[in-house]
């Protein structure tokens, strides 16, 4: 299952993905905006963790790693990127999110036009 929507609709997916409550709590505290690149656990020590990435988009992008059999939610905090998931293409900008399975064929950080510095957070749940 792939979900692509706006952050204002995030709560409506809580019935399908209960871990979204932890993600909402982290985002409401603005933690990913204030933290640098790296791996983090949620403050509540739930089964949800997150990775903050900072990168320069390019015409080639790079394959996504991590997630395995878990779900991954990617949110762009700054910048803009194109993400391909199993052949479907999505343009991620601040205010949007994308959920996919961690074992999907994912290519991230493809530039929309010119290379752009981008900061994104990936929640693993």
Short account of what is shown:
This protein has 125 residues and is mainly β. It has helices spanning 20-28, 31-34; strands at 3-6, 38-41, 49-56, 62-63, 71-78, 81-85, 88-92, 96-101, 106-110, 117-124. The relative contact order is 0.27.
Task: Describe the protein's architecture and organization.
There is one protein chain. It contains two helices and ten strands, in the order E-H-H-E-E-E-E-E-E-E-E-E. It has 125 residues and is mainly beta. The protein has a single domain (3-124), classed as Jelly Rolls (Sandwich). A six-stranded antiparallel sheet has the order 1-8-5-10-3-2, with no helix packed on it. It has a four-stranded antiparallel sheet with strand order 4-9-6-7, with no helix packed on it. A hairpin with a 2-residue loop joins strand 6 and strand 7. The protein is globular and about 40 Å long. The two termini are 14 Å apart.
Primary descriptors:
single chain; 125 residues; Jelly Rolls; 6-stranded antiparallel beta sheet; 4-stranded antiparallel beta sheet
What would you call the shape?
A: globular
Order of helices and strands: EHHEEEEEEEEE
| Amount of beta strand | 35-45%
* Low-confidence sequence ranges: none
How do the strands and helices of this protein lay out in sequence?
Layout: E1 3-6, H1 20-28, H2 31-34, E2 38-41, E3 49-56, E4 62-63, E5 71-78, E6 81-85, E7 88-92, E8 96-101, E9 106-110, E10 117-124
